[in-house]
Amino acid sequence: MTCGDLAQFSHRKIASESLVLLGEVDEYEPLCRKCYTKAVEE
Ligand SMILES: [Zn+2]
Fold first, then answer.
1. How far apart are CA 33 and CA 21, in angstroms?
2. N or C terminus of the chain: which is more exposed, having fewer CB within 10 Å?
3. Ligand 1 center from residue 25 Cα (angstroms)
4. 42 vs 6: CA distance, rounded Å
């Protein structure tokens, strides 16, 4: 699910602070700077 650019950021898809996250891959998605900024704004 990337646009083809180099993914420099790991965007956390699950917005929960109560869960203990152990670096589960499913909860993060690699995004480039542009996509990361867009994802955060949404
Ligand atoms: Zn991108």
1. 23
2. C
3. 18
4. 21
